[in-house]
Write a structure and sequence with these properties.
Strand order of the largest sheet: 3-2-1-4-5-6
Shape: globular
Distance between the termini: 26 Å
Helix content: 25-40%
Number of helices: 9
Oligomer: single chain
Largest sheet: 6 strands, parallel
């Protein structure tokens, strides 16, 4: 999409995993630790399909795709145990903290919309709370009763928009995502989408985004009518 077609926005909604913090590679590590005894591997082809899934969607995918001999509750416990070990090591990705602080400084309303549950969110961010406290509100799709269906359904972004005090029209909200499912959710919600995909993600998964960047460091707020970086 060419630059002249960008529309001005007033509110920003951010995904979390793989966009703000470096958890996507940690997920892959956990899944392959689980799969290796079965001689199987979670690849980028699998990741492209599952990024942004609710926990229950992911568990069903893993059991069905890799024919795992376990029940959903058993797999959930296995994953949670590994998450507790690995998630406290998360770090911000380049440009994330700078952008959030910039928008907050200029009174641009910002919200978080992540498929993570409250338990998972707390594991990943308890050492990063100062920055995550900048958000006006957080929609934790994995445990929020108002999010009926996970990404690529638009529920999570529409819920996030409604919870701003002024309840903006979706067209005034800019979504930041790294995942194809998240981009589709933003598009379906009637929002423009900034995509920062992992470099390993095949290019065909990026075509629906309004703009595709290599890093949040490359984002120019003024292209969407937001205050320029100082």
């Amino acid at each position: 999409m060419c630059e002249t077609t960008y529309k001005n926005v007033t509110h920003c909604i951010f995904d979390m995993d793989g966009l703000l913090i470096d958890t996507e590679q940690l997920y892959t590590t956990v899944f392959n630790r689980l799969l290796s005894p079965y001689g199987k591997e979670f690849t980028w082809a699998h990741k492209g399909q599952t990024m942004g899934f609710h926990t229950h969607q992911l568990i069903k995918f893993l059991i069905d795709t890799f024919e795992l001999p376990m029940q959903p509750d058993e797999l959930h416990k296995r994953l949670q145990d590994d998450y507790k070990e690995i998630f406290p090591t998360t770090k911000f990705l380049p440009g994330a903290e700078k952008l959030l602080r910039h928008l907050k400084k200029h009174n641009i309303p910002i919200a978080l919309a992540t498929s993570s549950s409250e338990e998972s969110f707390n594991l990943k961010t308890k050492h990063l709370t100062e920055v995550f406290d900048l958000f006006h509100h957080k929609v934790l799709g994995g445990s929020d009763p108002d999010v009926k269906i996970g990404k690529p359904n638009p529920d999570i972004f529409l819920v996030a928009a409604r919870r701003f005090p002024d309840c903006p029209d979706p067209s005034k909200c800019l979504v930041f995502e790294d995942a194809p499912n998240g981009v589709q959710a933003g598009v379906s919600a009637g929002m423009q989408t900034v995509m920062v995909p992992d470099p390993n993600l095949p290019k065909e998964f990026t075509q629906k985004a309004t703009i595709v960047l290599n890093s949040l460091e490359d984002f120019k707020p003024e292209q969407f009518g937001l205050p320029k970086f100082d």
